[in-house]
Specification:
- The complex is a heterodimer of chains A (about 240) and B (about 230).
- With about 240 residues, chain A is mainly alpha-helical.
- In chain A, about 75% of the residues lie in helices and about 0% in strands.
- Chain B has a single domain, classed as MetI-like (MetI-like fold), CATH 1.10.3720.
- In chain B, helix 4 crosses helix 5.
- The chains are: A mainly alpha (about 240), B mainly alpha (about 230).
Amino acid sequence: MGFQFDLSFFAYEISIAIQYIPVVLLLSILPLIVGLVFGTGIAIVRIFKVRILAQVFAVIVVFLRGVPLLLQLTILYLTVMLSFDSFAQALHLNMTSKDISYTLIAVIGLSINATVYLSEVVRTALQSVNSGQYEAAYSVGMTSCQMLRRIVIPQALPVTIPLIGSNFIGLIKGSAIASLISVVEIINATLFEANGNYKFLEAYLAAAIIYWALCIMVERIVAFLESRVGVYGKGGIV
Amino acid sequence: MENIFLVSLFIDSFPKLLSRLHITLYIVVVALLFGMLLGTYIAVVRLYKVPILSSLATAYVSFIRGIPILVLLYIVYIGLPLVVGFLGVNINRWDTMIFVMIAYVVNTSAFLSEIIRSAVAGVDLGQTEAAYSVGMTRWQAFRRIVAPQALQIGIPALGNTIVSLLKDTSLAYTLGVIDIIGVIKAITGNTYRSLEAYAAAAVIFFILSFMLEQVFKLIERKVGVKSAISNQG
């Protein structure tokens, strides 16, 4: 039996996969933004050692970092499915658990995951700035907010960009796991087309090519940003 | 609250899940060992810029690192028998575990080769030149001067990769392996009553990851690592 690889079907699958790129971007860009916003908040709380919150966040971050994304999504999915009906009845909403969008659950789950990792990235970046900078800023009378905005963040940015880039790539690949909780994205779409002719290898390879292309583009963007932001990085002339 | 989370079921799940812990650890250890071997070979090929192999290696690393592990699992599972079958060998009877191992070894090798490559490249070239100038051979220079410094640079990333590998093994169940997650699917068969078991699995994975992280913090201190940047691989 020879090795059969249907190139025309493969090309068709690639066209199908391309149509679902927006879904992948939704499942990765949205969590990235949410993750950056809340992650920065958590990082700042932990760095300034706000009384109770810092410890609570530390425990949450350490715990969630050790749980695989699959389990995070599955547990979130099951919890929502199980509790939504009673929740909706209590609020007199006219919805059942069948009306919930799986994609929304996936976005929330990925956002939580992104927040945890990005809080560590931001925390590392803020700590990489010499503590002398913080002290000097306070000594000329800046408030914490001014200090962060004018002194710390511009110096922390060159460290952050590659880390955020690799986290973004991780989110793009993590969106594939959403396919396991019934979200219609690239893998499910290409598989659906192959259900009739059993050409699953073409389906998975097409999905792989699209993911690869997306990751390469992100790497190029990150490299470009690194060269732009590096102007004000350490070792530059002020 | 009772029809959402039964604590008794949660506690009862632990023995069942822990009985499959050895499968998970087996995958991690095998993937690490062979991934390290293959990854070192790929890193060496790229560092010495061997003519054709180097470009092949670069493409291989870029591809494997750019695709989700889920997709890689299926490509290996479906594709390998087809490719090898073309050469006349029938491996359809192979245990699923072997395909799972191959997929994780391939994935780990790509990430490890990048870590090794950047760690070795991160050691100042002056170190190697100085070693040659005092008469060391290539191998002596590498073993005594470059490797220890590369180890210092690479250990944090290595630790992160191993923890990520542990979490990535959670996807092996999609090929039918009965590991910690696989046994949940086998017992509950996709009913809604599996939340407690998944929560127990989450706790187990957290404890494993936490222990691994502490081990690596210890190793980092012993090896003398200056700073550690955490990363999502």
